[in-house]
Amino acid sequence: MEKHRLEWLQSENELLKRRIAELEHTLEVQEWGAQLFHESEIPQLLLDLETGAVFAANAAARRFYGEQIIQQGHIDCICAEGMRWQRDLRALVEKNQYGVRVSRQNVYANEVRIVEAHYTLVRLRRRPVVHLICFDITDRVRAQQELELSHSRYQAFIQLSSEAIWRNMMTGPIPVQLPVEEQIDLIFERSYLAECNLAYCREWGVHRPDELTGTFMRERVSPENPLNREMICQFILNGYRLSNWIRTENLHGKDICHLCSYQGIVDNGYLYGMWGVFRDITELIRTQRALEASEARYRHFVEHANEAIWRLDMREPIDIRLPVEQQIEQIFARAYLAECNRAYARKFGHETPELLVGASLSALLDATDEKILALVRTLAEHNYRIEGLVSVEKLPGSAERVFLNSITGVIENGKLIRLWGVQTDITEMRRLQQELDRAYRLESIGRLAGGIAHDFNNVLTAVMGYAELARGRVQDETVQRYLEGIQTASARAADLNKQLLAYARRQVIQPAPMNLGQWLEGTKDILSRVLPENIRLRTHPTTDLWQVSADPNLLLQIVLNLVVNARDAMPGGGTITLRLSNKTLRRTRAHSIPNGRYVLLEVEDTGTGIPPEVLPHIFEPFYTTKPMGQGTGMGLAAVQGAVQQLGGHIEVRTEVGKGTCFSVYFPRLEPPRPPRRTP
I need a labelling partner for 655 at 20 to 30 A (CA). Which of 57, 456, 473, 591 fits? Predict the structure, then answer.
């Protein structure tokens, strides 16, 4: 019994010793871990998995983050990119118990640093804890970004350079101690293109660098050409360096001059490759050779031109920010004639420009002449750039002359230093134009009178015919029909008279502010009555239309004529679309319609379109393509007259076989400005 008890005690003693050893080992591991945690120079944190609270931070972490942030006791105060533990990070840690995450974190002195956080999910006393080891990689990331940026800049500089840049490498290094001729042969044999830019590609007629890279130098440059061998020889003799070497070679059947610079890649007595830059100076050399001839041609052209060409220089630059009147005063005080041609000299009664050069502007032009002042004022108001401006000048010993002016100012740093001008004498052209206009007006009046007489004659014939038939049948129903015919013919005569008045802009109108969208809705029934069943009428008014000033009767005449015209262009049926919208025209638009704000009415059909030879005549009175008796030719002429009477503009776009669209621009009625408040 005692023996068994002694054996049991010995067994228990051994178990106790092993347990004590395990506890001592665990204590040593904990002390070692605590020492690694607290004495480490790497910031470390312990977080509660459930809440994200910071319940332990080593000294390095306290220095890195600062006591103020650590004392707040939560990982959310450390994250600087809007990250939250419960929303963004906890699920990530639970899913991946070991991992690395790069983030931006708040640190000491309100600074944000880039941190690479290594996290591990462990259990301490049955409590899930996240152990964070944080490495500050801000400088490394920034250095990497700078490196990538530098590489991008390098690539952009190389690829976008106008000069051809390339790099050749050798399939095997070449000893620099070899004889020069042997090195030349080896360079041609081993050198291949490793890198080039787009400018280099263009020289060889390709579009991408990968079409050339990898090709050998001997494939692009002939080793047998003495000039090529001499260039490589000079490269070697100058210490594997060559600058400003002009090489002439034949590429694609034409001679090209290149200004070449080479730099060898030499290390430990071996040539590994070379950098090269060359610029195409073919045009530069040609330009230099042709400069004197070009200058002579320019002088000859200017001197013998029929237009008066001149240049004014300012003795002192003129600030263009000054008031316009002050700029005009300084122009007359400071400008002098620096250059002119014979045509300009002849304006003032001289045969050679030398007699005028140096004269002040006030001596050439009358500074008190209102027409001259208006020209200079217009020039200043248009930033010293005008084209096609007409001026009237009274020259010594002659009557007034009319000139077409194009003037360009040279402005530097907000100051006018020079004026270039070209003047064309259009006095005779203006006189001929006025005579032509008078002749055209007389012709138009004759055509108009003849058309009126013709149409009224037809109408009166109808009236007389119906009146004759009405005799003796006053009580008969047939007479009533005749009388109805008389009324129809009379109405037609009245409508024709209205069209004539609209064309001549003699019609009495009563404009009033109105909304075209509301007006169009009220006229849909009237417009529908003039259309057959196979033509559909669609309207697309825009909400919040601007108001216009217009006469409803004149508007109805415009729209009705356009709709009827569209109907006649669609004998087989189709669609007529009426659109209304607000439209603002700016300077980039063609000058046929002035810039401004308009309400745009578009009448578009899907008809036959207008042939190009007919299009220039569509607004002419009595011009029609319809058969005899089916049209007066006054419809579109009346529309144009009515639109102009309302202050608007009309234009047309068409395509044969696809349809026509008439665009009518009505000026916006600007709302009245509120009265200024007096102080």
Answer: 591
